[in-house]
## 1
Amino acid sequence: MTTNLTFHMSSGFLQEVTGSLTGTGGTGTQNGSWAYLWNETPPSDVAASGLLPGAANNWTPLVLNGSISSNVTFNSTNSDYEVTVALTDASLGTVSSSSIYLIVQSENPAAHTDLTQSSAIGSTIGQILPNTQNWNYGYAAFEVTLTNGSADLGDLTAIPGFAWNTAVNIDYDDSTSQHRGLGTSAQSLTNTLSTNNPSAVLKYPTSGGTPYSALDGVTSMVNSPSNSTFGPGDYPTSAWSSYLTAVEGMSNITLSGTTNGEPDANGVWHNAQYYSYTVSTQTLASGAWGAAGTYFVFSPNASSQTQGYVVMSEATLQSNLYAAGQGTMSIWEDSAFTQAYDVPGSAPFGQPQTNVIGTSVNNQWGNLLTPFFTGFTAGYWGTTSQSANTMMPTTSAATNLGGGTIDLNQTLNWSPAYAFDVHRVGTIPTYQHNDFWTQQFFNNSNIYGSAFSDNLSVGLTTGPLIPLSQPDGSKLNVSNIDLYVYGASETATTYFTPVASSVYLSLPGGQSDYLPVTTVSATTTGPQLIVSGQTAGLFPESTLSVQLGLYQGNGQFSYATLQPASNSNTGQTDYWQNYNLTNNGGVWTATSGGSNDEGTFIITTLPMSTTGTTGQVYWYQLVFTDSGGPPKVYNFYATQGSSVGTIDIDATDFAADGGATLAPTGQANYMKLSLNPATSMPVGMLDFAYNSQFSAMPAAPVAGTLSGSTFTPFDGQDSIGITGNKYATGSETAAPDITIDVGSSLAFGWTGTNNDSSTNYNPSTKVFGWTSAYTNKIVANDIAMVTIYDGATAIAHLQAEADLDGQWTTSADTQQLGNGTYTVAMQEYLPGGTTIFGTGTSAVAPISAVLTLNVSLTQLTLQETSSGDALQFAPHGDLRDGAGNWLHFDPVAGTQLPQGAQLLLYATTADGTLVGRDGTIGGGVSLADATLARLGSMRSDGGMELLKLGQTLFLPDDQQLHFALLNPDGTITSRPDVHITPQNNGSMLVTGAGLSFSVTVGNNLDHQDYFASEQRSSNLPVVYLTQGESIHVEAAGSAKNANTIHFVRFDYDHDSDTIVGVGGVAYGNTDAFRAAVQANWDPSFAVQNGNGTFHVSQDWKVGGKQGFYAPVLVTPDGEIFVPGTANKDGRVHVQTFGENVFAFEDVRADHGGDFDYNDMVVKLSVL
């Protein structure tokens, strides 16, 4: 789609620049004036102007040497002088961000600086702002985005300064139009700005003789506080000192809202997310944050998706209040500022990242500062306001829940209606507590006056931004933009849309109160009210109480509760319904007439008054209440239409406060109230869900190996499995599929851990990578649950906690796999790893794209070591880290260890140095750390074998497997008598401490082997189970007691592979811990047996949440025995005797326990 810009000059403008209404050049001057359009990104096929020798094609002449240039044409229809400039065409289809400048210069023609040449401005935008004074010009600018997207916008800007009265108009294909402009003359605004700060005024030079041009001595530009060249000198930041001191003493400032998902300047994507931060000050000694002094600290609330502490000095804050982007701030993981967080994108890819970043970086921490700075610009901080509606009572009551004052220290209460002390309660400070420059443009224009105009204009019926795409949904850009310039004394109010805050409707003449809607006067017809509570990634909580307030007159309301009902769409009871409002004996009742989608409810007929007449105004309320805290009240207003039960449809006939937006639908019987919950509701009223606006699912995990903390991805992962990422094209959108030859130390990470050349932004070529758009980052501190499937069966679950930017790697848990083809996927869980993110909403986090992992291990030959008492692999070629083979251990019938003893199967290097399960060698590695598995024998008191035992483990190719004996009393025989005999089939027959067993190399595993993964990684009697999973349990033993076996889901620390508690109660030898165990065992399973030898079996369907489960034993006298030493005697009462086999001792040591571990033996099998 081609977009042109038609530039219109009024005769008044030409009169000022040339001295003639027609621009032919006046008399009595040296004709030293020039005017141009400068286009930042001209299409390549646009030729440079022949009137400007040596100039680039950025330039279009308007006035040359005091006369209108020959390329300008006169339009007799509108009496404008016009030129047309191409912004996009066949050679430049889109423009992501660009500016068009009007530059007007006046100076001595004998010493003229030709701005069009490369020695001056040329084609370099950075030369425009700093040289206005030296080269004697002023300018105005219009900014555009033309990507053929629905969100393409343009704006007039005076952020650097003000020079000319410009306006913009766009006619759309549907015969509608929009315009933006100045609501006063340029001269009037210039006088106001100049009087406030004379030092900010630049003037065109004046000749001592014949004037250079008609502009001699005229103001060329008034520089703004945001002007990086002139602002610091013209507007000292010390003017903010008193206000800053006042804000330092405030303890209740809260910032809340959302940040867009976008890449930063270094091409690193940061997810869209909700933030809720409190602001405080601290006096800090010198440190990594900077010199000693006062610092502003931004602290995340618990429910904030953005996490991390932001520390910024008072001086840095002060330097940003006129112009954002000054200085730096630091990001920390903890409130004591001891753990620096190196922010991804803080430096170009490949360079060391840092926790020190700029104050306006485009990431979640830079963006949350925007409202904080805006609070100074508008004077919100420390301000209490009252409603613009004079009928609103000053206190809340049962008859008006919305009464009371408005605390602007909470950003969710902000509205343009309260900016710059409007409706302020109390004495207005005499010191500077807002930005005068911004206020003038806010009140008198649709033009950007500061970097914070976007924030200030939220809630205005017309803000500075103007749509540049067609309104029909085609996403095509408009074909033409009309840009106008006027003389200093001219007004262009035709193109100015009066700034109106849409928070309430004032009463029209002749109406002394809003129309009451009583049960007596209410209509049976009325508009349908559509209430939208959905924002990408969040909803109002479905458990909130909701009331509709119907006005009764004199500032009072009657409330109808929207009764929750069963919802077939969400599967829960909620208020996302289609409500019918009825009058039952003088009482309003709202009942559901059917389910709606989550995030939307409808009141099918909003009552109006039978006595209402055209143009009269209604006032309603919508009230949300949770179990604690004050209600959230939205007041909204509508205007009576031409007949009873209808409404007017113009934008100015609607209003809503509290951060909501009431928009016309173009029909007299519909209106839509958007709650905008991210910026209007307290965080405690919000539910968070998966944000699918960027992709229907996350990208596939990346596979690699982990050595210490170093993750090394496998080569060949050249795709990500999703189509929503614009930097993944063609085959890169396919699901990744790789083949590996290692079976241990396997880990998985987010897309950024990949080593493919397409992964990350390349700063040298400026080519964006996959991670410059959404892939699979998740919410900070949430859990990336990586699941490995063998066919349709989940065989392993690995967890990774996301860092502050949502990056994750399963560094705490590594996985071992045998030969086969597996699929690997990730799903986001809430902290703790038991609840899927978005549970309770209709947008539960989806399972990611899958990675197909083909494992093909090199078959190795097993042999005995030279000492004859250990196993190793025969010499072989070099293999990569993680290589090795699986060993299967099968005890020989009739052989046994001493009752209650176990063989510890542990790893060493060739020289006998212990190797930990995590790969650590020597140093502090203990025998327990090096134990890969345990194997025992289990017989009844009468000598009968109770259960069939076996074991499987993975032995790295360069390690040896040794044997130690764990005796029943807890002592260890480090070198038991071990004999190894090679067998003809390649296996080994090992006899150790009386137990004989065969050891076979076999790299094909079954699901039962994988079920024991957590036992191998932790050396604990645990299994990982999911809710609803079916398990077969065998229980056998010889015991005098009739004991009961239960299973409990324990809190588990992945970093240390330890049980840390249950139900939030810390692990330990305490009655509180054992009581928590009793309160939390799974109610779906219990087996009681004893009083002799027994063998029973039972299937168990897990009723609890997914996580790590372990067996616990309860004796008839109520003694509870748990894994580890958290038992009353401090002894271990449950041990692992084989793969998925756990055995108990049921008598305390101080009560005569024999620790034969045959009192209750359980074996778990997957079904």
## 2
Amino acid sequence: MTSRTGAPPRTHKPFVAVLAVLGLLAAWHLAGLFMFTSGFLLQRVELHDRAPPCAPASRSWRMPTPPRGASSGDPVALEAWDKTLREQGECTLPPRFQRAVVWIIDALRYDFVAEALNSSTTPNAYMHNLLRTPAELHKREHGASIMAHFVAHPPTTTLQRLKGLTTGSLPTFIEAGANFGGAGRVCEDTWIAQVRAQPGRERLVFVGDDTWQMVFADLFDESYPYSSFNVEDLDTVDAGVEQRMLAAMDSGNYSLVVGHSLGVDHVGHRFGPAHARMPPKLEQMDRIVQDVLARLPDDTLFVLLGDHGMDATGDHGGDSELEVGSALWMYSKRPFDPGAHPTRRAKQSLTFFPDVSALLDVPTPTPAYQPFSMLPVAEHVEGHRSLPQIDLVPTLALLLGVPVPFNSLGTIIPEAFASTQQPLGHADSRLLRALRINARQVRTYLDAYATQSRDLAPFEAELRALWHRALQADAAWAESPSADTARAAATQYTEFTRAALDRAQSVWAQFDHARIALGAAILGLTVLVTWMLWRRAAHEESRVLARRVGRAAGYGGAIGMASGTLVGAATHLRVWEGMLAGAALGALVAAALGLQAPVEAATHAAPRATSPVSTWLAVAVVGVHAMLFASNSFTMWEDRITLALLAVVLVGRGVLGLGAPLVRWQYRIPFLAAVVLVLVRLTAMSRVCREEQAPYCVPTFYARHASTEFADNPAYALSGPATNSPYVMIATYVVAMAFADVVRRLLMPSRAHLGSAATMLQWIVRPAMLGAAGFWLADWVHGLERWDEPTRDTFLHIKMGVARAVLGLLVVGAVYWCYAPLSLSVLREPAPDTGRPRVMILGFGNALGSAFLLGGSLGFVFVFLLSQPMGQLALAACFVATVLLAELGDHERDARMLAAVKRAEAQVEPPTSRPLPTLLETVCLVLVGFVAFFGTGHQATFTAIQWRVAFVGFTHVTYPWSPLFVVLNAFGPMMALPVFGAVLLALWNVAPHRVTKDAMPPLPMRVPSDALYMVLGVLWYLGVLAVSAAGWAYYFRRHLMLFKIWVPRFMTAGLGLVVADVLAAGAIGALLLVASRTHRAFGSSFV
């Protein structure tokens, strides 16, 4: 009877047992991560209330008479005054504009629009003073123009920014994932919905980024969406926006036109801002601005804005200065001030109007002026006029004469309501009326929010006091109208709305402590059970271990699920969540108790000795790594610290090798350790830098030809442009050509470099690696500015064709590897004594290890294709280092075995079978994975995600391949290398057990059990890191740097652990194929 793989049951069953154990661990990991993240990264409470419809606002509004004592702060009188204003107050203003054209240029950074005055670093020819029209009109037409540094609340992903720009609410961190997963429909009130609800409205038209179609599907009468993820296409969306937006304006039949262009963002992602492709794109945007203005009616407001900025490599998602620093320009052909002469322009900027200046000088948590490093010279002494993006929401609503969206926390932009004819103190001052409406709406939202959540309870007394002070100041103005009392009221309303925003922002993520505790308990117990499994896997067969832990987990899980059902029904947890947590915890506790039983005697092989000293040294290294997350500084410098830990371990192993019992080992062990150390040090020379590492980190991953101009700029000190260096690409060709020879050389000591290995390395691995290097060369050539569009399209097709050819070649290689014989060759030579031919099987001593190495090389080439050139060099170095670690560990085990034999001869103790790899060897492999992660251009930050690899072989986002490519690019080096190396260590230089006619059947090989033992060591290390990252993220949950430091690191640890689980199952599956071929060739059996 055979299995589907062709292996007999005795070959098949041990590997199924290993997969069962790994599957159980993966289920526990997923359960723990789900429970923890569902409690730690919850969305804030969304209120689905709508601002009620308003009666048409009048040009003048009569202030009610306040109760006696309200102006002096009497609490009872203030409550009565509050009720009077709530019932009789305004909810909007007469519309200043009848319609609006809102154009979002994705990733429009502030310095792309503002005038770059001469300084040591500006203007920059790639990005400054190219989109010139807004700055020129802002200088010339003061009363009709507002320009500001437009600060986005992180995370700076498009979906979150659209929510903020339309609802006025704050984003939550976990929603960033929805930006790439198709979720995120907006159910909250928006200013667009308010415009749509107005009687007598005309068409609402949208064109551009299809994210709008996803989240605002029913708000527009006409929609023309374009795919938002094809970063290779720099022009199609912009051309569509230009055509459709201008056509809608030409028709004249519209109340609102919204456009969202993507070209600037795509240039940034593709090449970075400091690249020759950016100037023509910004000039195109400037030309479209001029076309819009030529069609702009007098009663229409034009708003040009960016949803976020971009960092020095063109990426975004985090909260660095360049990522959050977008631009805002509001313009009309008639002044914002209704009392101003329609053709005479104000003599000074609206920001310098006395009433506006007084409000901007009010000390609030949100500064009205900020410096911007890309524009060191500012128009104002205090810095650049700066405001949060959510301030646009109440401003637009009141300018268009609609109610402010219910959930908005923004404050009106005072420049849009300032007036010289009706200043503060005037009975009909639009500025004070707008602030009053704005503050009332925020107060209504806070009251409604308090009924649904206690997030803001700690600030309730403070906010109530600020609100009463504002009411008191307003009552004083009502009793004694004057400029001073009006300014005091306006100031108090501003302080209230800004304080509400600041306090809400400080609790923008709520924490469910019950879910967090359950998740942490599941993860922590999984780490404990993994450790216990690792210790027993050294002595018990895989089937025995799987049966023991499976039986205990089944009973415990059933009891836990029943208990969890009752707990879920009695608490705020959903019933199925209680069942999940109960089942996981019950199974883990039962498994831990079951693993306490005495070790079942091995049937087929003697237990192997392990080194307790090396085990505790490994535990110490893992403990140091895990404790890094207790400090934000250590977490930020994890790349340097992991390299240092690996170097210390390698030096220690090299020094200990000097005491090996044979002279050749005394040379080879230190030599191999030194070579690995050199390789990882070379890998560490490739890096990207976190923002927090400036100015002590110098990036090397991308080309740096433009970064010298910004040497004194902390932001640009982090990275050069996001283009690859041609010199590095030449080096990748050299590496791609030599890699097959290097692997062949590594197989030569075991004579396993002949046969199928030679065929695979020569005809699959080498051509595929050359193609992978060629893809990025074609990508670089495709991006050069010198080509016309037909030539560029030709290079695009060449690039796509090369990538698909490589992928096809890897598929062919995988099929060949599955069916090809082991890498063996037969040598016949005459015996020296008899002269009869003697047959030698070359490669027999490493038949399993060489076959697994060849299969792993195919996976390596796949990740090599998905890595950018500098990452390809780093990945190749770490792959070779991993194989050398297998060779180093083999020498160390041989030395320990020989030492045991010598002790036996001295009658100290009997020798055991060949020792197992130590936990310290496993720790080395995991640290090499981390060095590879950082060396391939990654950090535990969103901005380090290399989105461009989603388009390797595709011109558009293609599911599931594009997300898979991004995941493998990020986690392949960090997780695949340790898992591959762990299994390789269990197989390296392990000869098959042959079945011969004249001899007793050999003992079954412990290959499945040894592979499980090694993989469990990797998963234990990664599990410890995940628990530590989760625990310290929770501990620092109110820290200022939580969402910048600890949350990304926890997400990296959690996702990495899940990826490692999947890769471990894949590695065992590949090992099963190797074992099946070994059984067919030699009759070997496995336990």
## 3
Amino acid sequence: MASIKGVSRSASVALAPDAPYMAAGTMAGAVDLSFSSSASLEIFKLDFQSEDWELPLVGESPSSERFNRLSWGKATAGSASEKFSLGLIAGGLVDGTIDIWNPLGLIRPEGNENALVGHLSRHKGPVRGLEFNTITPNLLASGADDGEICIWDLANPAEPSHFPPLRSGSSTAQGEISCLSWNSKVQHVLASTSYNGTTVVWDLKKQKPVISFSDPVRRRCSVLQWNPDFATHLVVASDEDNSPSVRLWDVRNVMSPLKEFTGHTKGVIAMAWCPIDSSYLITCAKDSRTICWDTVSGEIVCELPAGNNWNFDVHWYPKIPGVISASSFDGKVGFYNVEGCSRYGVGENVFGAGPLRAPKWYKRPVGASFGFGGKLMWFCPRSSPAGVPAGGSEVYVHNLVTEDSLVGRSSEFEAAIQNGERSLLRVLCDKKSQESEAEDDRETWSFLKVMFEDDGTARTKLLGHLGFSVPTNEKESVQDALSQEVNALGLEDVVPEKVGSGDDKEATIFPTDNGEDFFNNIPSPKADTPLSTSHDNFAIPDAVDGLEQLQQEPDGVGESVDPAFNDGVQRALIVGDYKGAVAQCISANKMADALVIAHVGGASLWESTRDQYFRMSHSPYLKVVSAMVNNDLLSIVNTRPLKFWKETLALLCSFAQREEWTVLCDTLASKLLNAGNTLAATLCYICAGNIDKTVEIWSRSLQTEHEGKSYVDLLQDLMEKTIVLALATGQKRFSASLCKLVEKYAEILASQGLLTTAMEYLKLLGSDELSPELVILRDRIALSTVPEKEVVENSQAPSAAVYGADQSNFGLVDASQSYYQGTTNPGYQPIPSGTGPAAPVTSHLGSVPGHKMPQMIAPSPPQKGFMPVNSGLVQRPGMGSLQPPSPTRAALAQPTVTPAAPPPTVQTVDTSNVPVHQKPVIATLTRLFNETSEALGGLRANPAKKREIEDNSRKLGALFAKLNSGDISKNAADKLVQLCQALDNGDFSTALQIQVLLTTSEWDECNFWLATLKRMIKTRQNVRLS
């Protein structure tokens, strides 16, 4: 490969440590094609982006003599920082002097007359050893043919100072100094070598040599270099053509070299150790070869292309890894990339590829990566003692939390709902309502709070929240008032003389009195007067006063003054023509008389007359009565103005049956939503228990940022309301949009390390018809969660029902226990039917990795919601028997709640109904349990092992119970049979593979006992039983 950049010069070079520049000094002992005897120092810019091969010259200064060595030192903080920002260049000349240049003065366009800043005269022969200290850049070491080593302090280049010269004693006599090098790890240690084959390590603090060694055969030593990473490793090369050598020494033991690099056939004259990767060393020799060595293996990595003449100076470019400069006697200085040089397939394996090691500059010294589950992993070099290179890296794993607010709120929310008590849920809703800044949120949480009220009070609370109050005294209740109202309109015989003799003195919701009295108290209009629709016409005095007045009125009061009308009605009644009599009363606008006569004429005539009266009346409250009597609450929803939606909802709350409640509330909500009243629609959807529509409306406000809240905070608000609503309604099937929302939330929780909580939310969605994304997320969370060893307390287990972990620990109330239950009386019978609490559902607690969240809603007593019948409140009247409730009617007895049975174990579980083909599963796993129990110590086991044995028994007992009841899928059962067959054959590896398959495909169904089964298999695999 040809050089990538270069310049046509026969020069020794030095590369700037912190800038893209190269200094080139005319090489002593070499001539160019012009045979010029002049010398100069030139500065070239290393522009690797330019397409020109020739490097641009940016500065030049003549020199009195040619150069043996050049060195470019870093800038020091104490040396007029701006004036010497590029450091200093020192040139060792053939006459024994050292010139000091300021490279910044050479580069500046105004001239270089001030570039030469110092001239050092001390040596008596050519200066071949010259180098700046890499740790203390103001120190310059020089060595010459006179055998002296001088240390110069160039903190002030204009007035340099020097320390006493270092001279060898008689035992370590050095001849002509050929090269010297500062230790890159210890700043006061210097090494020098000479042509007589002696290498000396100097301690400047002691001003004397500390180690000296010689080549065994006294070969000329031409160059040496310290290892940039190991403070005690030193390479020394010889330039003798008969026996060239490159040897690696450890100065702690100089009896023999550590390694020798064999490849050159003639003397080595220059060498450079890679400052970035100490495993690379480059050498050039008189055989015209420039070789890059692997100092670890001692093999050749690559070789620069050979020229027509030798390379006499080589350097690694410190700014770009892998770039080398080589100066040759061909009159060129070239730059090469070692990656493009010819490589050697040393140590080839059977496949023909050499075991090459990537350079260190390709390795990231530090790095970080984000992992699933809120993990952040990073690596960095392992710390090592001073002078010893770092060996390998250290990897750290950190739980990264970026949403502290989300984690805190999620944990707080879990703690608030974990006990599942309705009183605590009411407190939660009340707290959220008070903390909410927006009026819509406060109203929403208030409605959610009502859903968790105790039995018999939920409807009253909702009516109160809507602005309606109901008397608490049963005798003053609306139910009795309305029952009396309808009794007056009933089908049974009415005795007029006894109308006012009752003891009931309460006022009713509607301005009416009992039956005939009510209508007879209406002033009779004139024959040509139209029917009045004014509310004032229905206004009557107090009920008691009205009855007293009725009793004191003389006979004949209120009778018609039209004899013809009276005669016609009487004639019709005499012949039993009730229909004709009713028609005459209606035509005379005597609706009360018509209703009374119709009552006598039978149910059909009564109903037609009643309906006609309702049609003729324009009073709003009679529209309500008509809808109740005709079982047509839907018409109220469709016809009442939407601005009175609260009154409409209150009517539905009071009179709607359970089976029609949801439809009516949904209809009202839909009309409100179409009209743009989003809040009212949301509240009605909440009453209907319609989670999908409610969340759809809530999701519309889910923006990236809203009112100072981030998307994560808004999503947390939405999920809290959704979960509370789900807990109240017991809904277990969700729409695709809600599933997507839960997926997003679970992903965020998982990214914060809340894997167990994320799994709980995913379990809310069930396992049917999940999207591929949800399945993948669920499996990732399941496989990323390390099962924790369950700690079983010695205290007695509570007698409350325990719920299985194969379902979500957010225990949803059964749909039949939703917060609204309508009236249960068929045919609008006024007799209330008592309803007792349902017995709690029990199951067994599963092993869910991580934090355990118990059942959210306590199984007993069940949630009742709004009960308009059992609470002594308004009951919708009907046209059947209108007798008051019989006092002898017995209430339904409440079933006795028995404590939950202890979970089954291997010893106590019933397996009599296990299918025949699954019987081997029971036998094999029972044997596995016995063998692992014995391996754990059996009866002699310590407390920790005993708890593990008990846990194994309990988990297998739950599995056996599922097999006995058939509550296990065919796929899971078939895999269990295969697993047990593998155990019978002693093939534990296959058994563990099948267990992994169950984990990935049947996790929701089998997670309760899968971890225990895996633990038992591994225990049995690692123990040899006698």
